[in-house]
Design a protein that fits this description.
Blueprint: E1 2-7, H1 11-21, E2 27-33, H2 36-46, E3 50-53, H3 62-70, E4 77-82, H4 87-96, E5 100-103, H5 108-119, H6 127-140, H7 146-152, H8 158-168, H9 173-180, H10 184-198, H11 203-212
Parallel strand pairs: 1-2, 1-3, 3-4, 4-5
Length: about 220
C-alpha cells in the first residue's frame, strides 16, 4: 500500500485528489494539510511514501515545504501539483528536490501513474514541462563547452552511461530494464550511483547532464 499526503490550501482540490487516489486499491491518503507548515508536520507524523504538494499556500509555500521535507532523513518523494506552468516554478521545484511536477489538469490515470512511479523512486513530469526544462538548459549550453559536460561523466561506467541515456530519453525504470536487458533492481542501483557521481537529486537533472554531454539529442 502506497501512503500519500495531500498538501493544498483548497479543501475542494484536496477532496478531488482524495477521490481520484482512493479509486485504487494500492493507494491510501494518510492525511491532508492546508499549508506548508502543516505539510511538514504531517510528514513527521505519518512518514508517507509520496507527498502531493501545491505551490501557492499560506504560512510556508509548497516549494519551501518541499525543501524542508526533502532535507529530512529518508524523505518521501514530493510531486509538485499546480495550476502554474512557468520556468520559474519548474526550476524552483526541481531545486527544492521535487521528483515530479504535474499540472492540476493532468488526467487522473497519469496522476495515479505518477504517484506509483514516485513511490518506486522513479519520476514523472508533464510532457510540456519536460520540454521546456530540457530546452532551457540545452539552450544555455550553446555558449558553454561540451567538453566540460563530458568531463563530468568521466567517472561513469559504460553501463551507467547507458542508463543515463535512457533517462535522458525520458524512460521509466521498467522500460530501461527491458531496453538494457537487466532487472529493475539493477536499474535502480545504477541510478543511485548516478545520483551520487553526478551530485544530482532528481531524474531531470540526470537527463540534463545527458543532453549537455551530447549523449541524447
Amino acid at each position: 500500500m502506497i501512503s500519500v499526503l495531500l498538501a493544498d490550501d483548497e479543501a475542494l482540490i484536496r477532496a478531488g485528489l482524495r477521490m481520484i487516489l482512493e479509486t485504487s486499491d494500492d493507494l491510501t491518503v494518510v492525511d491532508e494539510a492546508g499549508d506548508g507548515q502543516a505539510a511538514v508536520a504531517a510528514v513527521e507524523r505519518h512518514r508517507p511514501d509520496v507527498v502531493l504538494m501545491d505551490i501557492r499556500m499560506p504560512r510556508l509555500d509548497g516549494l519551501e515545504a518541499t525543501a524542508a521535507i526533502r532535507a529530512k532523513p529518508q524523505p518521501p518523494s514530493v510531486i509538485v501539483l499546480t495550476t502554474f506552468n512557468t520556468d520559474h516554478d519548474v526550476f524552483r521545484a526541481l531545486e527544492a528536490g521535487a521528483t515530479g511536477f504535474l499540472l492540476k489538469d493532468t488526467p487522473p490515470a497519469d496522476l495515479l501513474r505518477a504517484v506509483r512511479l514516485a513511490a518506486a523512486g522513479d519520476a514523472m513530469l508533464s510532457p510540456s514541462v519536460t520540454r521546456q526544462v530540457i530546452h532551457r538548459f540545452t539552450a544555455e549550453d550553446r555558449s558553454r563547452s561540451r567538453v566540460a559536460a563530458l568531463d563530468r561523466l568521466r567517472p561513469l561506467t559504460e553501463r551507467e552511461r547507458e542508463v543515463l541515456v535512457q533517462i535522458g530519453l525520458g524512460h521509466a525504470n521498467a522500460v530501461i530494464a527491458r531496453a538494457l536487458h537487466m532487472s529493475e533492481a539493477t536499474v535502480k542501483s545504477h541510478i543511485t550511483r548516478l545520483f551520487e557521481k553526478l551530485a544530482a537529486t532528481n531524474r531531470v537533472q540526470l537527463a540534463i547532464a545527458a543532453f549537455r554531454a551530447g549523449l541524447v539529442e
